[in-house]
Design brief:
Distance between the termini: 51 Å
Shape: globular
CATH class of the largest domain: Alpha Beta
Helix content: 40-55%
Strand order of the largest sheet: 3-2-1-4-5
CATH superfamily of the largest domain: Ribonuclease H-like superfamily/Ribonuclease H
CATH architecture of the largest domain: 2-Layer Sandwich
Number of strands: 7
Length: 335
């Protein structure tokens, strides 16, 4: 593992970046400055670091994942070939222990010290390909449209409970809005399919994932987005943890014996998509259907068995990606 001389913690907000430099040889000597969260501010940050004679090749930049506000900084680090580490905000928060008060400067300091204390967990980050960034934005827009369709569709509940004259005041406009949203949804779906087809690697991954029974187009695309083309997670277990379907033991000493269960921290979109895949798989996949029925006959809880199916689907996805070959249903060859 690379030995870093300097650790730079950066607290990101919409308009500014709070930067704290920690010299590993003298951790108590901190330097703090603020720059704007744009190209001009990032160039100024680089100028300040060079003036302080910071060896950028032996410097680790660490910052939280704050969504779209993180993107300019991550692109800047990637383009300049800096080593940088994007960490989930909740992980840094829970690593702080007992703390009182809060400020952007103290947050940046905590981030810098987190990168020093947890250097053994280091996983250098990188910017996903342009096509994956585009897919992510399109998928986000798609989710917004789906929610809007549910909201505008609820207007129909007024029919039959209010007078016809009252309902007609919004009926025509409501139908036009729903029609427009459905048309927009089709356009976005077509754009996502086109983006996948344009990239040979993404197209191959898409086809491999789709070869698994129960997994549809939207799930395949979301797996590519969430894993950044299967570069973020190196095992099915880690992805299952991220999706919130991996079971964990809950016990302590001789008195506490809680049931094994999943954790609430999860990618809710992926978890929801996997649930739909599991419901489809136990109907159309002979092997998973037999497993599902066998476990139910053993008295297992229905949701527990479905969660096991979700884990199996993740395992199959990783298997086809690692083998670079479509899923083969060996169950049909069993006598």
């Amino acid at each position: 593992m690379k030995n870093y001389s300097f650790h730079v913690g950066i607290d990101i907000s919409k308009l500014k970046l709070d930067v704290v430099i920690v010299d590993k040889t003298n951790p108590m000597s901190l330097e703090h400055f603020v720059v704007t969260n744009n190209t001009k501010g990032l160039k100024r940050m680089l100028t300040v670091l060079k003036k302080r004679k910071i060896d950028l090749e032996s410097t680790l930049f660490c910052f939280e994942n704050t969504g779209v506000y993180t993107f300019p900084l991550s692109c800047f680090c990637f383009e300049n070939e800096f080593d940088y580490w994007i960490v989930p905000a909740v992980e840094i928060k829970r690593s702080k222990g007992i703390s009182r008060g809060k400020s952007d400067k103290s947050d940046a300091k905590d981030i810098a010290f987190y990168s020093i204390r947890n250097i053994d967990k280091l996983q250098l980050s990188s910017v996903p390909e342009k096509s994956i960034q585009q897919l992510k934005l399109l998928f986000t827009e798609r989710e917004k449209i789906k929610k809007s369709l549910l909201l505008f569709g609820s207007t129909r509940e007024n029919k039959g409970y209010t007078s016809l004259d009252v309902y007609k005041t919004v009926e025509i406009q409501n139908k036009k809005t729903i029609k427009f949203l459905k048309a927009s949804l089709k356009v976005i779906d077509a754009k996502m399919r086109e983006l996948v087809k344009q990239e040979p690697k993404l197209k191959r991954q898409f086809e491999l994932i789709k070869s698994i029974k129960g997994v549809g187009e939207k799930t395949a695309i979301y797996f590519i987005i969430a894993t950044k083309g299967f570069k973020v997670f190196d095992s099915a277990r880690k992805l299952a943890c991220y999706a919130g379907v991996a079971p964990f033991e809950y016990s302590s000493g001789s008195s506490i014996r809680g049931g094994t269960k999943v954790n609430h921290m999860a990618d809710k979109t992926m978890k929801s998509l996997l649930q739909m895949c599991a419901l489809s798989a136990v109907k159309h996949d002979a092997q998973l259907k037999a497993y599902y029925l066998r476990k139910q006959d053993e008295g297992k809880n229905k949701m527990l068995v479905l969660n096991n199916v979700r884990c199996k689907i993740i395992g199959r996805i990783f298997a086809v990606i690692n083998r670079d070959s479509p899923f083969v249903d060996t169950y049909k060859f069993v006598a």
